[in-house]
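Predict structure. Input: Glycerophosphodiester phosphodiesterase family protein, 286 residues.
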Amino acid sequence: MNDSFPPQPHRPEVHGHRGCRGLRPENTLPAFLHAVALGADVLELDVVISQDHQVVVSHEPWLSAKLGRDALGQLIDPAQEQQYNLYQLPYAAIRRCAVGEWPHPDFPEQQPIPSYRPLLCDMLRQAAAASQLQGRSIGFSVEIKSSPEGDDVFHPRPAQFVDLVMAELQTAEAIDRTTLLSFDPRVLQAARHSYPGLALCLLIEDHLPPVAELFGALGFEPEVLGPDFHLLSAATVQGIRAEYPELRLAPWTVNTPAELALVLSWQTDAITTDYPDRLLSLLGKA
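Output follows.
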């Protein structure tokens, strides 16, 4: 009797970028819950800090004119948006700033849904509850955006920023399902020092260093590498695999069917996309 089974096709984790930015207003509860309903494995999101040290889900540390209004319901002048600094606003004011009322110019399939910037704790609780109703567990990729120039202006310094985020993850009992992402090596260094068990991802944009020097500035090998997918090729992926056999690869942000098919052929560990429905459809046909 032949007990062998045919090899199963490789299936990367499906990471919903900002929830599912191509389908619902980014970084909102409707986007995260829709991504869960679609079947995404991991929710990718960005966090900022309010004046009263609340951890808020938002890509920019200011009110983006593209996304919504100010606390008084007024439109925001794009040239002045950085003056609406979330690090200088209490969360009660941020909560009043509507987002998602109109179609996003870059995402024609995005369905407008009036919403707001949620607290990380609320997002974690609602996403976990929604996934439990499906009989599964959802993961989280939480990105901290920071820079030396932004310290004490748009955000706290790295160690405090990490502590504030970790406190929310600990309260939600989500640490074992979370990877902390950052372009800023200082954030990952602070996290590795204070929370050595937390999975970390170095994000890379614009330039991919030589493979042997990928983590020279960081000083250690993280669990995950998250490059812009345009920086990769089949040969590059093979080279990274050979140099770092334990490293997980999670390229971003892969959106068109052709791009998704290309990155699928590289057999990365995860794919981050604004359209988890497109990736899930391709995987269902594999």
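The chain has one domain: 13-63+118-285.
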